[in-house]
Amino acid sequence: MATAATPTLHVDLSGTFGVVFWAFVVSTVLFGVSVVQGYFYYMHNRDSASLRLFVALMLTLDFTTTALSSQSLHDYLIINFGNPFALLYMTKPYISEYIVTGIVTILSQLFYASRIHLIATNHYVRWVIPVAIGLLAFAAFGFAIASTIQIFRTERLISALQYDRMKILAGLNTGLAALCDIVATIAMCLFLASRKTEYKQTKSIITFLLFITINRGLLVAVAQIGFLTSYVSAPSKIYWMPFHLSVSKLHVNTLLAMLNSRSSLRSKTEVTQWRNDTSPTTLASPASKFSYDDRSAMTFADNRHSNMPVFRHDPEIDNDSSSNV
Could you give the CA distance from residue 237 to residue 13 in angstroms, rounded to a whole number? Predict the structure, then answer.
C-alpha cells in the first residue's frame, strides 16, 4: 500500500537572509584583518597607556559586533529553523549590533578629529575643524539612538523598516556620519597638501600620509553611502546589510592601519637621519633645515611628538665624519 508523501515547507531565503549570510562572511574576514592589525600594533608600538587602551576598546567593540551578528544568524537559522514567522522580526542581538556599530563609528571619528587638532598649526583650523567633526559625529550617533527607539516602537518588525519615519532617521544617521568622514578626510588632505617642502624624503612621507588618509575616507564613505542608497531604495530586501556590517570593521581597520603606518615612517626617517649624521654636512644641509612644519606631517596618527625621530645638526659629529673621509 502506497503511503502519501509528507508535505514539506520550502522557504527560499536567498533573496533576503542569504544576503545577510554572505554579509556576515565578509564582515568576519574584515574582523580577522582587525585582529592581525591589532597584533602588529601591540608588537611594534609603545604608545601611552591611554592610546593602547583605546585600541583595545575598539578591538573589543569590533569583536562584539561580530559576536552579535553571529548570534542573530543562530537565532534565525538554527533556533527558529522551519519557523517562517520568526523571519518577520529583528532579533535583539541585531539591534544591539546596530548600537555598537554607532559607538565604533563615533569613537573613530572623534579620534580622527583629535589627530587634526594635534597636528594643525593654524589656530582656526586647530579648533573649528575638530569641533565641526565632533558635532557631526554626535548628531549622527543621536539619530542612531533614535532609529533604535523607533525599531522597538514598531515591535521589531522587519516590514517597519520601509516606513517613512524609519527611512528619515536611518538616512540622517548614515548621511551625517558619511558627511563627518568626508569633512575629516578633506581637511586632513588640505592640511597635508599645504606642507610644502623642497626635500624629497619629506615629500615621500607626505604622499604616504595622503594615500592613507584618502583610502580611509574613501572606504568608509563608500560603505556608508552604499548603505544609505540601498536602504532607501529597498529597505525590506536587506540588500543594505553588507554595507552596514562592514562599516564598523572599516573604521577599526583604517584606524589601526593609520597607527601601524608610523613604524614605516619611523624606519624611513631613521635611515635618513643615519645618512645625514655619518656624512659630511654643512649648516645649510637638509638635516639642519628640517623644520617643525616638516616634522608635523609625520606626527599624523601619533599622540606624542617625541615618538618620532627628530633631525638635528651636530657639528662635532659632522667634523669627525668628514675627517674620516
Answer: 11
Give the residue-averaged pLDDT of 37-64: 92
d(CA 71, CA 92): 10
Q: Does residue 76 contact residue 91 with C-beta atoms inside 8 Å?
A: yes
119, 124, 125, 130: CA torsion to nearest 10: 90
- What residue segments make up the domains of the chain, in order of their start? 22-261
* Contacting residues for 114 by C-beta, under 8 A, at least 6 apart: 130
User: In angstroms, what CA-CA distances link 207 with 115, 175, 194, 204?
Assistant: 18, 29, 12, 5
DSSP letter assigned to residue 12: -
pLDDT tens sequence across 37-50: 999 999 988 888 99
Burial 233-267, CB ≥16 within 10 A → b, else e: eebeebbbbbbbbbbbbbbbbbbbbbbbbbeebbe
pLDDT at position 247 is 92
